[in-house]
Amino acid sequence: MSKSYLLRQLPAVHDVVKDISSEVSGKPEKEITRAVQDAIKHWRNNILKDHHAIDLKTDIRSLVKNSAKSKLAHPTDQIRSLINASGIVIHTNLGRSRLSEKSVERMSETARMYSNLEYNLEEGKRGSRHDLTEDLIKQVTGAEAAMVVNNNAAAVYLILKALAKNKEVIVSRGELVEIGGSFRVSSIMEESGAELREVGTTNKTHFFDYEGAITDKTGMIMKVHTSNFKVIGFTKEVSSSELMLLKKDNPELIIYEDLGSGALYPFQSEGIGDEPLISSVINKGLDVVSFSGDKLLGGPQAGIIAGKKNIIDILKKHQLARVLRVDKFTIAALNETLQSYMNEDYTEIPTVRDILKTPDEIREVVWRLKRKVEDHPSFIIRILEEFSQVGGGTMPDVKLPTFCLGIKHPKGAEYLARAFRNYQTPIIVRIKEEEVLLDFRTISEEELLTVEDAIRSID
Ligand SMILES: *Cc1c(COP(=O)(O)O)cnc(C)c1O
Questions:
Q1: Which pLDDT score is estimated for 24?
Q2: 199 — phi, psi (to 5°)?
Q3: Quick check: is 78 in a domain?
Q4: Which tens digits make up the pLDDT trace of 393-406?
Q5: 391 vs 236: CA distance, rounded Å
Q6: Is 188 in the pocket of ligand 1 (CB under 6 A)?
Q7: Is the Cβ atom of 369 under 6 angstroms away from ligand 1?
Q8: Distance between CA atoms of residues 424 and 419, nearest Å
Q9: Are 352 and 346 in contact (CB under 8 A)?
Q10: Best mutation site among 258, 275, 291, 297 for ligand 1 pocket (most ligand atoms within 8 Å of CB)
Q11: For residues 69 and 424, is the Cβ–Cβ distance under 8 A?
Q12: Is the Cβ atom of 226 under 6 angstroms away from ligand 1?
């Protein structure tokens, strides 16, 4: 009964348009009408879904008005900045890595001015954009040669297409992964025209499996980092250094490893995960490796390819390299990120900094905020020990000890999470057992005031 009562309170579109048009002056009538229609639809859905959460005395017309005004001020169908309080550092849905301040500055300067993107300043003539990234990548990875493409999926595609088209590529069945729902090794292989030759089983693949699968049609052995899952128990995989032994009898064979995330910082020696350093993989003498720019590396979206010079030369010359090339902003941001690694200024890189934050540092911040907001009339607020995640399909079994602000609200956790999401700077939280958790690992110092304001403004 209360449901139909609430539905009847939904206002007519033209009434709300009339109400708010003077307050949102400057917006075209069409845009206002669309925002009001969306707001009415939104509140109708809310009533249908969970009318118990809405007080019968609520003024539905002003809710609709506020939603429409907020939508006009902060369109949700355009890209918006938000605060990630989920504690997942590399959150693929929230844009993966934040960039360092230096990267951001370099990007905006590159946007504002002309640049030497494809211009050789020494010779005063046309240059190549590859030259702007190659040296830095070579220095931080120890590779002979390197190049950058749009993302790691593009890198995998280019490598398979340019080096293994119409040939067989041997992959362990334990490594035929799907990442993020849209990247499947087997599908990308099919697209590239390379033929997949599966060996071994899901949990065990031996050296002799690879060895026995090599024929004169074999072009490559591909190893894939099983980023987002772990096979535990009765398992066996063959390391890339063992695979290198196969080159003795098959000198033409290309050994390629898709490293997925690829660490340039030794997280492993800090006791965080077992991600190998890219330089140590390159050091084994593999022909080619690829990894993402915006996962553990903490840079812009990019696919970095590093390896033997003769291999990289083939890739650079392939037509697809032009199709998959990166723009000047990516190059600017990547330059600065890699420069931070070169200078060993690791904490300039937000992704690295946030993964390395200690529970003590985080607790100090949560305490400070809790003291400021604990008098909130309708919240029950506490501090609790929890775990953050690295995210980005990286180190799925690693739990980073952290501290969270736990907030309970009489209207429930879903209501509260939505209120945080609808704040002018949306705040993305996590919910655990009817409690909203704000994980301060992924909230930066500059964002604290906004979080405090949001907590105060929600009732
Ligand atoms: C993430 C990942 C990819 C895809 O990389 P993008 O940069 O997201 O395109 C490919 N392979 C592995 C193993 C990955 O972990």
A1: 84
A2: -135, 160
A3: no
A4: 888 889 999 999 99
A5: 25
A6: no
A7: no
A8: 10
A9: yes
A10: 258
A11: no
A12: no
Closest protein CA for atom 13 of ligand 1? 260
Q: Which residues of the chain have pLDDT under 50?
A: none
pLDDT at residue 2 in the model: 84
**pLDDT at res. 227:** 65
The answer on 149 and 87 residing in a single domain is no
Axis crossing angle, helix 328-342 with helix 101-112, rounded to the nearest 10? 150
What's the CA-to-centroid distance between 92 and ligand 1, angstroms? Answer: 11
Q: Which two tokens stand for residue 184?
A: 């499947």
- 111 C-beta neighbours (distance < 10 Å), count: 11
Q: Which atom of ligand 1 is nearest to the CA of 228?
A: 15
Phi-psi group of 366: left, alpha or beta (phi > 0 → left; psi -120 to 50 → alpha; rest → beta): alpha
Q: Are residues 232 and 332 in the same domain?
A: yes
pLDDT for 229 equals 66
pLDDT (0 to 100) of residue 77: 79
* CATH (domain of 372): 3.90.1150.180
pLDDT of residue 234: 76
Whether residue 224 has its Cβ less than 6 Å from ligand 1: yes
Q: Are residues 310 and 413 in the same domain?
A: no
Among 331, 340, 270, residue whose Cα is nearest residue 119:
331
- Give the tokens for residue 62: 């002003």
CA distance 52 to 66: 21
CB of 227 sitting under 6 A from ligand 1: yes
Domain limits at 221?
Answer: 101-348
Backbone angles phi, psi at 126, to 5 degrees: -50, 135
326-374 confidence digits (pLDDT tens): 999 999 999 999 999 999 999 999 999 999 999 999 999 999 999 999 9
Give the closest residue (by CA) to ligand 1 atom 12.
260
Domain identity same for 206 and 292: yes
- Ligand 1 centroid distance, CA of 157 (Å): 11
The answer to whether the beta carbons of residues 82 and 450 sit under 8 Å apart is: no
Nearest residue by C-alpha to atom 2 in ligand 1: 260
Centroid of ligand 1 to alpha carbon of 201 (angstroms): 22
The residue type of 157 is Y
